[in-house]
Amino acid sequence: MSVDRLERINELLRRAIGESLYKVFAGDTLDLACITVTNVETSRNLRDATVYVSILGHDDERGSILRKLANKANALQSIINRDLTLKYTPRLRFVLDGSVAKGDHVLDILSHLDIPKDNSSECPT
C-alpha cells in the first residue's frame, strides 16, 4: 500500500473518530471539549490503528478518560464501519499524546520571560 494512501486513511480516520466522539458519548458526563484526536497511525494491513489523543486540563482524570475511550472503541468502530468504506475496520487503541500539553507549557514559559529591550541592535537613523 502506498504511503500517500495510508496517510489519507489516517487523516480520514482522525476526522471520523473526532466527529464520532460526540455521538458515542452523548449523555455522558465526559468533558469532550478537553479531548483532541491529534493523530492516527494505521497498520499497513489496516487491521489496527493507534489513536493519539490530547487531553488538556483534567490532569488527574487522564487515565479514566483514556479508559472510557477504550471502553467505547467498539462503538466508534461500528460508526467508522458504517460511515467509511474501507477494506477492514481497524481495531482502535487509544494512547495519550503529550505533545500539545508540552507545547502549551513551553509557550507559557516563554510568555513569562522578562527579556530586556536592547537598543544597541537597532539600526541607526
Secondary-structure element order, N to C: HEEHHEH
The SS-based structural class is alpha+beta
Mean pLDDT: 84
> What is the 3D form?
globular
Write the CATH architecture name. 2-Layer Sandwich
Q: Briefly, what CATH class? A: Alpha Beta
- The rounded Rg comes to 20 Å
What is the element layout, followed by pairings?
Blueprint: H1 3-24, E1 35-42, E2 48-55, H2 62-71, H3 73-83, E3 91-96, H4 99-111
Parallel strand pairs: 2-3
Antiparallel strand pairs: 1-2
Helix pairs in contact: 1-3
Relevant terms:
single chain, 125 residues, alpha+beta, GMP Synthetase, Chain A, domain 3, three-stranded mixed beta sheet, 4 helices, 45% helix, 18% strand
Describe the structure concisely for a colleague.
With 125 residues, this protein is of the alpha+beta class. It has 4 helices and 3 strands; from the N terminus they run αββααβα.
Q: Explain this structure to me?
A:
Helix 1 (3-24) packs across helix 3. The protein has helices spanning 3-24, 62-71, 73-83, 99-111, and strands at residues 35-42, 48-55, 91-96. Strand 1 (35-42) and strand 2 (48-55) form a beta hairpin. The N and C termini lie far apart (61 Å). The protein has one domain (3-101): 2-Layer Sandwich (GMP Synthetase, Chain A, domain 3). The protein is of the alpha+beta class and 125 residues long. A 3-stranded mixed beta sheet has the order 1-2-3, sandwiched between helices. It has 4 helices and 3 strands. The model has no long low-confidence stretch (mean pLDDT 84). The radius of gyration is 20 Å and the shape is globular.
